[in-house]
Amino acid sequence: MTGSSRLAYQYVVLRCVPRVDREEFVNVGVVVYCHATDFLDVAWHVDRDRLAAFDPTLDLDQVCEALAFVEGVCAGDERGGAAATAPISQRFGFVKAPRSTVLQPGPVHGGTTTDPARQLEHLLEKLVS
C-alpha cells in the first residue's frame, strides 16, 4: 500500500461505567475496524486509581476480564466465545452494540488512515491514556 492510500475506518471508545445510575464514565479502550483490510482490534488501559475514585467497590478485575473478552472477539479466538466465530464485520457489530453493563461502547465514529494499527494506538493515547 502506498503512503497516500487512505482507508476508511470506524471506531468506538469503550467506557467503564462504574455506576450506571450516575451516568459517569471513564474511557478504558478503543476498538478500530477497517473493512478494506479486515482489521479489527482493541487497545485498552485501565487506570485502577481513577476508577476506584469513581466507585471504590468496583471490581476492577471484572473490568479487565470484560476487556479481555473484547480482545477475544476482535481476535476471533476462544476468549470471545461464540461471538468470536462470526465474520469480522459481525464481530465489530457485536462489540459496538449498546449494553447496560459496567463496560459500554460509546457512539461509532469514523475517519481515514493509512495504517489502522497505528491509528488504534493514536486513538488510545488521545482518548484513553
Automatic annotation (TrEMBL):
Top-level taxon of the source organism: Bacteria
InterPro entries for the chain: DUF3037
Record-given protein name: DUF3037 domain-containing protein
